[in-house]
Amino acid sequence: MLSDIITWLFPDSCLSCNSEGQLLCLDCRDRLNPHPEICFGCKKTQSTSGYCQNCQTNSGLFSLKACYQFDNLAKQLVYEAKYQLNPNAPKLISQLILESLGSTFWQDFDLISFIPSSRQKLRLRGSNIVKTVARNLSIGSGLPIIALLNRTNNHELVGLSRADRVKTIIGSFELNTKAKSLDLAEVRLLLIDDVLTSGATLQEAAKTLSGYDLQVSGLVFAHKLEPGTESLIAGTNLILNLP
After folding, report:
1. Which helix (H) or strand (E) holds 236?
2. What is the pTM of this model?
3. Position 232 pLDDT exceeds 70
4. What's the CATH code of the domain at 191?
5. Please, which residues bridge with residue 196 across strands?
6. According to the model, what pLDDT value does residue 10 have?
7. Looking at residue 216, what DSSP letter applies?
8. How far is it, in rounded angstroms, from Cα 1 to Cα 132?
9. 54 and 42 in contact (C-beta within 8 Å)?
10. What is the span of the domain harbouring residue 113?
11. In angstroms, rounded to a whole number, what is the distance separating the alpha carbons of residues 93 and 140?
């Protein structure tokens, strides 16, 4: 209610064109770049995004989906959610995910959960933005949601190399007390995060959950493509489109 009043008194301006009324106007939403259909491991193009057969073995995830590329507009929206604490930003992120995936996507899952925030980030922001997005996705999809994981450390991953991210995140999650009392065997779980960089966070969370016989898949709003990936994709698409 309070956020609705604030929005009415101080309406958002579009992050891209500054037109008043919405955080991203309809025209600028069309400028968000969909995530390409590539393997998150080897970066080769394929019919669907996720991991190819060779890379999936080491991922710990049954499947992985990113809706958009983490480029300028997506970065601005995530920044607005995390650092400007604009309550309309997580709402819009959730809406964009739902619009991107359609209704049939959710039929392959039984339960939604999310990556927990560190205590430091919770104190700074007052809430877990990813949890808010996951709740909105639960409402939009009709899937139940439950908090399964606790964060066991407060190590910061921003700015670290892939190798350092993988090393730092090891042992960062544990199943919470309430979840330990549940029968989770063969549950098809969709684990939510906001941005995928190296994939280390989702993979470590999936590793923690794998001991409880869940089938863990990941879903993120956006994925930060590695330098050079864009040109590789563009070159492949050019070849595929030749007459």
Report:
1. helix 229-240
2. 0.85
3. no
4. 3.40.50
5. 223
6. 60
7. E
8. 15
9. yes
10. 36-240
11. 12
The mean pLDDT of the chain is 84
Residue 67 main-chain phi, psi, to 5 deg: -85, -40
C-alpha to C-alpha distance for 74 and 93, rounded to whole angstroms: 9
Side-chain half-sphere exposure of 124, counting CA atoms within 13 A: 11
What region, left, alpha or beta, does residue 14 occupy, with left being phi > 0 and alpha being psi -120 to 50 degrees?
Answer: beta
DSSP conformation letters of 73-125 = HHHHHHHHHHTS--THHHHHHHHHHHHHH-SGGGGG-SEEEEPPPPHHHHHHH
The count of structural domains within the chain is: 2
Tokens of 124: 């700074």
Taking the alpha carbons at both ends of the chain, their separation in whole angstroms is 56
What pLDDT sits at residue 240? 40
**231 pLDDT more than 80:** no
Q: Pick from 54, 28, 29: which is nearest to 40 by CA?
A: 54
d(CA 200, CA 197): 8
Identify whether the C-beta of residue 171 lies closer than 8 Å to the C-beta of residue 151. Answer: no
pLDDT over 90 (residue 96): yes
Same domain, 84 and 20: no
pLDDT of residue 236: 42
Which parts of the chain are beta strand (E)? 63-69, 111-114, 149-151, 173-175, 188-196, 215-223
Going by their DSSP bridges, the two strands 63-69 and 111-114 should be labelled as unpaired
CB-count burial class (<10 Å; 0-12, 13-18, 19+) for 160: middle
The reply to whether 130 and 20 lie within a common domain is no
Same domain? For 3 and 43 the reply is no
Entry field: residues in the chain: 243
